[in-house]
Amino acid sequence: MRPHRHLRRRRQRRRLLSKRLAQTGYRGHRCARPHEPVVELDCTRAPPDARAFFDAFVRRRRPCVLRGYARTAALGAVSDACGAADPARAWCAALDRAAGPKVVRAEVRERGRFGRGNECQLRVRGFVAEALHRHATGGACRYYLTTQPLAEDAEGRPELCGEPVRSLVREKLFPPTCPLLPSLILANANVWMGCAPAGRSTSSGLHHDFHDNLLVLVCGRKRIRLWDPAATRAMRPSGGPPHRVHGNGRVVYASNPGVEADGRDAGADAALGRHAALDALGDDDDDAAEGLLDALLDDDRARDDFDDAGDDGGADDGAGAPPENFSTLRKARGAYPALAGRPRFRDVVLAPGDALYMPCGFWHEVSSDGGVHAAFNYWLHPPDAADFARPYASPFWTDDWARRERDDAFVRAALRRRR
Question: pTM value?
Answer without folding.
Answer: 0.84
